Amino acid sequence: MSNAKAQKSVLWDWLTTVDHKKIGILYLVSGGFFFALGGLEAILMRIQLMFPNLGFVSAQTFNELLTMHGTTMIFLAAMPLLFGFMNYIVPLQIGARDVAFPFLNSLGFWLFLFGGILINLSWFLGGAPDAGWTAYVPLSSEYSGTGIDYYVLGLQISGLGTLISGINFLVTIINMRAPGMSMMRMPLFTWSSFVASALILFAFPALTVGLLLLMLERLFGATYFAVDFGGNVVIWQHLFWIFGHPEVYILILPAFGIFSEILATFSKKRLFGYSAMVFATLIIGFLGFMVWAHHMFTVGIGPVANAIFAVATMAIAVPTGIKIFNWLFTLWGGRIQFTTANLFAIGFIPSFVMGGVTGVMLATSAANYQFHDTYFVVAHFHYVIIGGVVLGLFAGAFYWWPRMFGYKLNETLGKWFFWLFLFGFHLTFFVQHFVGLMGMPRRVASYLPGQGLDSLNFVSSVGAILMSVAFILFLVNVVVSVKNKSEADPWDGRTLEWGIPTPTPEYNFAQTPLVRELDALWYEKMHGNGKLKAAEPLDDIHMPNGSILPIFMSLGLFIAAFGLIYHVIPVTVIGLGITLGAMFIRSIKEDHGYHIHKEDIKKEEGVG
Amino acid sequence: MKNLWRVLPFSFILLFLAGCGKQNLTALDPRGPVADMQHSLIGLSLLIMVFVIVVVAAIYVFVLIRFREKPGDNHIPEQVEGNKNLEIIWTAIPILLLIILAVPNVMDTFTLADTETDDDTLVVNVTGHQFWWEFEYPDLEITAGQDLYIPTDTRIVFNLEASDVIHSFWIPALAGKQDNVPGITNDMWIEAPEEGVYFGKCTELCGEAHWLMDFKVVAVDPDTFDEWAQGMAEPDSELIEPTEEVAAEGREVFEQNCLACHAVGGEGGNPQGGPDLTNFGERTVIAGFMEYDDESLEAWIRHPEEQKPGNLMPGFDQLDDDEMDSLIEYLNSLKVLDDE
């Protein structure tokens, strides 16, 4: 009886939490689930493409799989997983007790989750979206089934969550840094999270507008894109890529940040060329916005635009190159430890360079006419996104796992996982460069025998199977390592998050730390007693109350979306009513939070 | 000879790449000036990129071997802040490399966009449909479906259009792709110096049968092309009114069932219909991908949906065997070039 009650309260606690650490874990768990789902979709496609003319799945199902794989991996896996780390780690790295807006943080998560669930429900309710993750009109506006409605509304809801979270991180990083933590003393992960959040702030509105236009077109007969009524289909592509290209950097920059932390920690050196790294991050963020039309070289925007966007795109290679060399010189002269986390970071460098150079090749507009929409492109962006983002996520997982969950992942299993995954990854995607140039368009449900495409496709599928086996090894690792308790600072860390007890207290820092140098904890290890200096006396800590309202706000939009998809206006009204009602309650209810008393803190910290 | 070491890896890469894929399909074995230009640009970018990879790999391997932690090694490495000169070097060198690539690229981009026509140019309007290709020759007043006939050694300018969704027109061995965008007319040019049949594909996701939206480019010498165009414009009366008994019956079946969508010799068809069938008997494949034989043809006519999901042709399973046989015979007889 009492046991059941206790469990219920644990569930309630997680549903209502506004603690950035718990929200971070929620992001990781749900992002991990969607990652597995997207992986399953990928494996089904690779089985279908293992042999020519195979009827493992129908062409229609294949189009749904490829659309959902892309959508899921970008919006529901990669970004939330990065948000998971950002949520947990960024406040710790800047010496803060929480994010700027804890309630919004929770709202952002639940919006993402309900949006993700909505999109995936389409599998069971009349067919998933099938126009590619880019949903080009008019295929998506006039020639597709209700699946696209799920796509439009699901992404709208989860995109709203992303935008809210992005703004939250911007404010948090600007306002909540501990005393002494100037911008130029921020760890690179925080820096890159900051720039990524700024990109979210500018990029997501473009997506929102695009999706809104598509929604109006599909549900209410608007004609922004309908050519017969004076619409223009290229508008969608511009809006989508004005969002879509920065999105790549929203994903890769935090991953760059993770690598910067890990390479410095495990070579026992401060990051080489820190300020150059910061500026390179900013320049990449800026250029990321300026080059969207390189996705549209074959659309017919003319040679002048093509040439300008080609050169602007190539320019991104310069700050990226600066980063690569700075990482290499961080390792140079260091004492390199080959932990699993560091293996992922080291494995990232050549993998990502491969993806980067093919990026420059793709930017070559005249040659792009051959590359565009072929498997060459598929190979390129998987090199960037898996070789960069996914390796970064796994590196971050092995690195921060002890901080987040209090135990270390098994190193032996981790290394097996790393090698199998890396080998499978290169096997899958390296050959695809050639498949593309040999005449295989992307997004094809199958290919004909006798066109010289058979053997390399087979090799590619075998690689994909190896990657899945590797991922299962990771899941096993998560379970079997539970008893592998970790100390507070298992890696001899350099940044603030390693300077506090484990498990992380809910208030993070008993006393806000005083930051005296870059790599604050390392500095104290070298120049002090190894403990963070306090910037304030020990006192009561103010904490925000949890709230169930974010779930209801998200649930309301979720219900409203069903009303729109099936044209049942009352359902939409009820749904929006729930959301607005929850917002109203939030506005009128006084909520001053609560205090953790300093006596309790002393007890927990084991002082006095 | 001094430059040999620089040329060698380049030639090796191209040699290696040339061996890849099926002839007249792969972009790695170009058969015309446009694809050639793109191929050498790919080669140049590849050369620069391989150089970058080699430099990074060299530093990488050295660092990982030289600075790995050895057992019992507990030293604290010097905390180096950075190095301004190095930063300048690895900013400047990539910029130089990119300029080397950007200059020819910009020139080629403009060359490829130059689609001016003169009297010797052949203009072809290419329309993408779900899921087949229509080729209209405005100057010759003929329309063909699925098989694009072109004369060798002639500059050909395509005007690209789409009737429904976005398609993308790609003949890897002859030229890179351009999109067929509804409401917009794009253009591109090619030349095919060698006779042969080249493979073309649609590369923009356009629905269920996107992967089967293949077509063939048949490059023939200019005389044969003229003969073909002549035949398409004014098919001999034998074709319109077949003499052989069975084919005449087939013509009747065709008129009753197919003529509403498919034109033959300028008769029949409609703008939303299927491909022009004037020279159907000369095709090498059916519907862009099926082996051309009587069996496949019957399978296609009876149940096109099973062969190419999402295509708009209704099935004609109601035809009895005799009607089907004569229809196939008639279709086989649709030829505009003399058999030789």
TrEMBL record, chain A:
CC terms in the record's Gene Ontology section: plasma membrane
UniProt domain Cytochrome oxidase subunit I profile: residue ranges: 6-516
One Gene Ontology molecular-function label: heme binding
Pathway participation: Energy metabolism; oxidative phosphorylation
Membrane topology: Multi-pass membrane protein
CDD domains named in the record: Ubiquinol_Oxidase_I (cd01662)
Single GO BP term: respiratory electron transport chain
Protein location: Cell membrane
EC number(s) stated in the UniProt entry for this protein: 7.1.1.9
Enzyme class: translocase
Known function: Cytochrome c oxidase is the component of the respiratory chain that catalyzes the reduction of oxygen to water. Subunits 1-3 form the functional core of the enzyme complex. CO I is the catalytic subunit of the enzyme. Electrons originating in cytochrome c are transferred via the copper A center of subunit 2 and heme A of subunit 1 to the bimetallic center formed by heme A3 and copper B.
Annotated protein name in UniProt: Cytochrome c oxidase subunit 1
Organism this protein belongs to: Alteribacter keqinensis
Organism lineage: Bacteria, Bacillati, Bacillota, Bacilli, Bacillales
From TrEMBL, chain B:
GO biological process, one term: ATP synthesis coupled electron transport
Membrane topology designation: Multi-pass membrane protein
Cofactor(s) the protein needs: Cu cation
Subcellular localization(s) per the UniProt record: Cell membrane; Membrane
Domain Cytochrome c: 245-335
Record has Ligase as a keyword: no
Protein task: Subunits I and II form the functional core of the enzyme complex. Electrons originating in cytochrome c are transferred via heme a and Cu(A) to the binuclear center formed by heme a3 and Cu(B).
Name assigned to this protein: Cytochrome c oxidase subunit 2
Protein species of origin: Alteribacter keqinensis
Taxonomic placement: Bacteria, Bacillati, Bacillota, Bacilli, Bacillales
Gene (UniProt): coxB
